[in-house]
Design brief:
The chain is mainly beta and 709 residues long. It folds into five domains: 92 residues, Immunoglobulin-like; 102 residues, Cadherins (Immunoglobulin-like); 109 residues, Immunoglobulin-like, CATH 2.60.40; 98 residues, Cadherins (Immunoglobulin-like, Sandwich), CATH 2.60.40.60; 113 residues, Immunoglobulin-like (Sandwich), CATH 2.60.40. It contains five helices and 41 strands. It is elongated and about 180 Å long. The chain starts with a helix and ends in a 23-residue tail after the last helix.
Length: 709
């Protein structure tokens, strides 16, 4: 403790002595620590200096202070003397009274009103408050009247090294790539010291490493951490724990220090190649495995991590390069071997492959370390499986003529069991594809026969499915599509493409084309259709019309003369024979109707009816239709009227209220009594028909009788 106090006093006195020398000419009292009280032996010299200053620069008042200093954290049995106030108006008597006011006056700082001595009553902390501003004044003790105006001064708290450096942002975490060269920047740390950085070395920091050597170093003044060893390998050690110290007083003995930790992690670089866990892999696979199905996995381990550990796999050699493929599993980084083409135990029972694993991302800085790849051998054994039958062809195309006979063979399919046991095969037709049962198949040899007649013009193609089943294992089934094309034979005669009706103008000219007709044939000859047209033998010398074959396989009908008349003959029928070029040729006779019509001068048909000649000139066809409709309507009305009159009948049964017996006949003749009654039959009056012996019945409806008009 004595050495530390001496060191602090030396650090304090050095700037105070310099300030004493420079400030006294300007009437500033030299800053002192506990010696700021003026010694009694120096009064004459101080007065002389003050008097000289008065001569040079007249002052309004005679204060000899401006600022004072006091050490922080100083404590003792008695208050510490900060300094003394004195004015040249003080003759040494007790008539002057010193008064102190301002920051901490009366609590922290107390003044002796007689001597002007200022004492600090409490221990001060510069980090809490670095300076205090106070006001001093000299007054008359008896009257309290100011002898001079008040004057302001400052008491500064002198710093001592009482605060250790602190790392506010610690602890720290940093990263640096592995295999870095010496001097690679890692991170920078920062410590703070609450002491005064202006005076002394209390806040002058120096950094050093307590733990973490020899791997890392730190710049003493900048606190920059760098690598100190080359080629640090993450795979050997990934994380380092470094302790950094910051010490004040420039790092000298007696300075305070603070520490922090820096966790440094080495980041990965691609400095390791992939390596297969084993040099030889064995896998077995059934021959009926589905295409694309994985059959095994290989793994190349990489000590690196992340993107640097990603590898791609490839088959570089072997007898199954076109049969198998290998891909990379993105999640596990495994090499997955899959089947690309079907396997056949009976053809090849084993395969040998050479696979290679190579890094995807290669760092060129480490290429000198060797190739970043590795190889391994893979042996694959194919195991036998009970396979379904195999057809000799994946599809079949058969052809049959449409006039083929029933039960004739139109084709044959073949299949065999690829297994070593070679089970016999039975064939059948999937009847869902042959609902009309037009075909049959021999179950033993696979010959397909015709069951019903075929017609190409109805259905040109038939698609059926043939099923092959092993007799020893009915679950082993194969199917094959069979397309049957029906070939054409010449079994249809040609005919007119449509029902033609030709119109011939009365004012037509000889040789004029009346109509062009075309023919169609349902058959489909290989070389296309070619039709022959002719007239019936008895119509060859037809005086009215003739025919002409056109190059486009059509027929033109021509008039031989002019002067056709509707009154003479309105309609002509022209039979035409149409023949094809098939073998044997087919023919048919079609009749063309030719109607004679009245035409305009430019050949436009206007009317084709004979009655048109007796119609009034100038009466249009619409008017004629209207007149005819009116006549028909009148006839209908007359017929309805007559029918209703004829069906209007008398009552068929005599009503009781019309009975003549209920009628009273009054006359003046005197009656004859019973003689009159017997002389005349009253029933005759009631029903005149009774005279003929026919008496109508009232319980039935009589037959309708028509009275002559």
């Amino acid at each position: 403790m004595p050495e530390r106090l001496t060191e602090m006093l030396m650090d304090t006195w050095t700037p105070l002595i310099m300030l004493w020398i420079t400030v006294l000419p300007s009437i500033y009292m030299a800053p002192m620590n506990q010696s700021q009280v003026l010694p009694s032996g120096s009064s004459t010299g101080l007065k002389r200096l003050i008097e000289e200053q008065r001569v040079l620069n007249r002052s309004k008042r005679g204060w000899v202070w401006n600022q004072m200093f006091v050490l922080e954290e100083f404590s003792g049995p008695e208050p510490i003397l900060v300094g003394r106030l004195h004015t040249d108006l003080d003759p040494g008597s007790s008539k002057i009274k010193y008064i102190l006011s301002g920051d901490g006056a009366g609590t922290i700082f107390v003044i002796n009103d007689k001597t002007g001595d200022i004492h600090a009553m409490k221990r001060l902390d510069r980090e809490e408050k670095a300076e205090y501003t106070l006001t001093a004044q000299a007054v008359d003790r008896d009257t309290n009247k100011p002898l001079e105006p008040p004057s302001e001064f400052i008491i500064k708290v002198q710093d001592i090294n009482d605060n250790a450096p602190e790392f506010v942002d610690g602890p720290y975490h940093a990263t640096v790539p592995e295999m870095s060269v010496v001097g690679t920047f890692v991170t920078k740390v920062t410590a703070t010291d609450a002491d005064d950085p202006v005076y002394g070395n209390s806040a002058k920091l120096v950094y050093s490493i307590l733990e973490g050597q020899p791997y890392f170093s730190i710049e003493p003044h900048t606190a920059i951490i760098k690598t100190a060893l080359p080629n640090m390998d993450r795979e050997a050690k990934e994380e380092y724990f470094v302790v950094i110290q910051a010490k004040d007083m420039g790092g000298h003995m007696g300075g305070l220090s603070g520490t922090t930790t820096v966790t440094i992690t080495l980041t990965d670089v691609n400095d390791n190649p992939p390596k297969f866990a084993q040099s030889l892999y064995h896998f077995s696979v059934m021959e009926d495995v589905a295409l694309g199905e994985p059959i095994g996995r290989v793994k190349a381990n990489d000590l690196d991590i992340g993107e640097n550990a990603k590898s791609s796999y490839d088959i570089v050699e072997g007898d199954g390069m076109d049969i198998f493929e290998i891909t990379t599993d993105a999640q596990t980084q495994d090499g997955v071997i899959r089947v690309r083409k079907p396997l056949d135990f009976e053809t090849k029972k084993s395969y040998t492959l050479k696979v290679e694993a190579a890094n995807v991302h290669i760092d060129p800085r480490f290429l000198s370390g060797g190739p970043f790849k590795d190889t391994a051998t893979v042996k694959i054994v194919v195991e036998d499986a009970d396979e379904p039958p195999v057809f000799s062809s994946p599809t079949y195309l058969l052809e049959v003529h449409e006039n083929a006979a029933i039960n004739s063979v139109i084709g044959q399919v073949a299949a065999h069991d690829p297994d070593v046991s070679s089970s016999p095969i039975r064939f059948s037709i999937d009847r869902h594809t042959d609902l009309e049962r037009q075909f049959n198949i021999n179950a033993e040899d696979g010959k397909i026969t015709l069951a019903t007649p075929l017609d190409r013009e109805t259905n040109m193609w038939h698609n059926i499915t043939i099923v092959a089943t092993e007799t020893r294992n009915h679950s082993q089934v194969s199917r094959v599509p069979v397309a049957i094309k029906v070939l054409d034979v010449n079994d249809n005669a040609p005919e007119f493409a449509s029902e033609h009706e030709a119109f011939l103008c009365e004012n037509g000219k000889p040789g004029q084309v009346i109509q062009i007709v075309s023919a169609v044939d349902k058959d489909d000859p290989k070389n296309g259709h070619y039709f022959l047209y002719s007239l019936l033998p008895e119509m060859v010398n037809n005086p009215n019309f003739t025919i002409k074959k056109n190059e486009d396989n059509t027929l033109s009908i021509l008039a031989k003369h002019s002067g056709f008349s509707r009154q003479k003959q309105e309609v002509y029928l022209l039979p035409i024979i149409i023949s094809d070029s098939g073998n044997p040729p087919m023919s048919s006779t079609s009749t063309l109707t030719i109607r004679v019509c009245g035409c305009s001068s430019d050949g436009i048909v206007q009317s084709c009816n004979v009655e048109a000649y007796v119609l009034p000139i100038g009466l249009s066809m619409g008017a004629l239709i209207a007149i005819l409709a009116c006549i028909i309507l009148l006839l209908v009305i007359v017929v309805l009227f007559v029918t209703l009159r004829r069906h209007k009948n008398e009552p068929l049964i005599i009503k009781d209220d019309e009975d003549v017996r209920e009628n009273i006949i009054r006359y003046d003749d005197e009656g004859g009594g019973e003689e009159d009654t017997e002389a005349f039959d009253i029933a005759t009056l009631q029903n005149p028909d009774g005279i003929n012996g026919f008496l109508p019945r009232k319980d039935i409806k009589p037959d309708l009788q028509f009275m002559p008009r």
